[in-house]
Amino acid sequence: MYKETHVQGNSCTRKLMYKETHVQGNSCTRKLMVPPWTSFFVEEWVWDFQSRSPNVYLCYHNKVACFHIDPVVESTGTAAVLGNKAFAHGQHYWEIKLTDVRGTSMMIGVATQDAMLHTDNYEYVNLVGRDQESWGLSHRGEIWHGGQKWKFCEPFFDSTVIGVLLDMDKGTISFFKNGQPLGVAFTGLQDRGCELYPIASSTASESEVELGYRCCKYSTLIDQCCMEIIKHVNRDNMNRLPLPAGVSAKMKEKGGKVLSSSRVLPLP
User: Fold this and answer.
1) Phi, psi of 148 (to 5 degrees)
2) Can you list the domains of the chain with their CATH numbers?
3) What region holds the B30.2/SPRY domain (predicted)?
């Protein structure tokens, strides 16, 4: 169970931009702003009350994260919050609305459970991607990982909707902006061998991020098996496994694509 935090002021008193997604059975029947696939399944994760900075307040059933809304104390650092669902397999897509874009840094991305979620002492930083535990896109159009940044797209403005496509099988993160694909930002995430969570951060007082559509698509069972074996078996030793020739060939094919170090794609 996750507690819903009620706050006063103009941070969490408006209506949500998104209505609930209607489903038929287990599959979604409502069109996404940017449908990554022709068929998919709805996900219902929200922001995690247990995995957040003390300067993050959650409302609307934890679908809206409000940053630095203390009426007396203004922002004195950077705050972040994780989603309450970890991803290990499959492809996952979600949209986040940045209501009021301002401040030193507003970011979205993915992170491990060990990611930093808070800074203080007036340390306003690009928190998502500051170390090896997270990968992020800032409102200034820069992508961050391991303390390094690369120019990725044009800056965001108020009410921008950012889509995140996390492919845990290929180990990639792609971003979308107001319905338009921005391309692949990061590769090699599967090499970490751990589950990843959605994350958002902000330095700005009374700023918000609002969850929109959340959906997923899983690969076939044989693809999942191959990906797990590839993570633990050296490519040169795959032919020693007692597997059918077709499966072994498919594993080698996949291995050639995923057994690479975590890196950022070169940008033009």
Assistant:
1) -110, 150
2) 41-217 (2.60.120.920), 221-256 (no CATH)
3) 24-218
